[in-house]
Amino acid sequence: AAPLVVAVDGPSGSGKSSVCRAVARHLGTAYLDTGAMYRAATWSCLRAGVDLTDAAAVAAHVRAVVLAMGTDPAGATTAVGDVDVTDAVRGAEVTAAVSAVASVPAVRADLILRQRALIDAACRTPQPGRRAGVVVEGRDITTVVAPQAPVRVLLTAREEVRVARRAQQDLGTADAAAVASVRDGVVQRDLVDSRTTDFLAAADGVITVDSSDLDFEGTVEAVLAVVGRAT
Ligand code: C5P
């Protein structure tokens, strides 16, 4: 069968990561989290004390960062050099700084090339027992990284739903106080990110899946249905 590339974009809190992993598991393909690449680049800049307002310094630092992305959907990992940063890149410090790093055009050009190489590798030389192809998630996958992908999905959810999910995920509850404390983070990061990448509206040919009124399994099925129709 031809390699299967499924490109998924969407805002934070849309459930992208868990849904995309499950979709990749169902399809038997690899999984690539491009947000983790921007997060790992940011982690490295913070550790090295790079001035994040100095775009040239940020780009020069990121160019030298050795990123190793594990693409197994059952346990995707991220490493910088030989340091496993899978958990560290989820921390509040990286989350607060990542949009600044991702807004540097030379950083994007660099990571986009690496993302395309990883997609090619997953298509040409799949891991043993895996189907050729990859489910790739991010903000600009359907439009910039892989606009030729046979399946392109924008995974969205209403803002109040995304904020509640993030509160549940990060704080273990979606009560009013938890929701209030994550709202600014979610809304603000999307606002800043949307100045760099346009993931709020579906580009031509991109299918929107709105998960607001779907549970996790329902969302996975909805994305798999788009894959089924397109292939
Ligand atoms: O998806 P996640 O929240 O892990 O992404 C972290 C950040 O990486 C986003 O807030 C955005 O700034 C950046 N990003 C991006 N383009 C992508 C994926 C992520 O700019 N394709």
TrEMBL record:
Origin superkingdom: Bacteria
Entry EC no(s): 2.7.4.25
Catalytic activity of the protein: dCMP + ATP = dCDP + ADP; CMP + ATP = CDP + ADP
Enzyme class: transferase
Classification via InterPro entries: Cytidylate_kin, Cytidylate_kinase_dom, P-loop_NTPase
Subcellular location: Cytoplasm
UniProt-annotated binding residues for ATP: G10, P11, S12, G13, S14, G15, K16, S17, S18
Domain Cytidylate kinase, first and last residues per copy: 6-227
CDD domains registered for this protein in UniProt: CMPK
Alphabetical list of Gene3D superfamilies matching this protein: P-loop containing nucleotide triphosphate hydrolases
Keywords noted in UniProt: ATP-binding, Cytoplasm, Kinase, Nucleotide-binding, Transferase
Similarity section: Belongs to the cytidylate kinase family. Type 1 subfamily.
Protein's name in the database: Cytidylate kinase
